[in-house]
Amino acid sequence: MxxxxxxxxxxxIEGQINDIFRALSNGxxxxxxxxxxxxxxxxxxxxxxxxxxCKRLIKEFERAMKEEESRNTNxxxxxLNEKKQSMIKELNSYVALKKQHAxxxxxxxxxxxxxxxxxxxxxxxxxxxxxxxxxxxxxAGHRMMDETDQAxxxxxxxxxxxxxxxxxxxxxxxxxxxxxSRIVNELDSIHFSMKKASQLVKELGRQxxxxxxxxxxxxxxxxxxxxxxxxxxxxxNNKDIADIPGLPPPANRKLL
Length: 256
Known about the structure:
Residues 44-78 form a coiled coil. By secondary structure, this protein is mainly alpha-helical.
């Protein structure tokens, strides 16, 4: 398989995985010759650590594939995917071989753990593509595309809802701004009206005070006139009081 056009990162990861596979092959060959149970257990633990590292590198390989997928050709992506499936298949063959030796040595497989899952990728609950038929792969691809379409539709709906909420919020803010402007204008009008009314009240107060002064003077004049009339009537011969204009002088009466 020609993968000369892939990135240095993928090539480096692939080289590390191949080194681990060679070490696993040599390790299992060495394990066949070991008879002591303790030494076999230690050898199995070392092989387990290498398989864990190989699993991590395969995940790194898959991550790098996804990052470069848009830049590679379809043929390159297909070859990379086949290479990944080949590495997974080879790793699982070593896992099965390790389980066989662990069973013979009556040791607990650390890959099984409390849940008892023996495959390296069992925790992901994903069926290996290498064991799937073309029809199963197509069906899985269709399901993934359907799920992606649904996720896109949900995202579109969220975006539309967000836009609608934003538009409604903007309209509400605009209405509130206009209402506040009207309130400010009304407050200005009220302030002006109150100022005008205060001026009118002051003017009315001054007019009322002036009218009261005039009325007081008129009352004093009327009282003075009445007093003069009364005095003139009582003492008509009093020359100190001038005759009131318009009022005939009193007639001189003699007592019989």
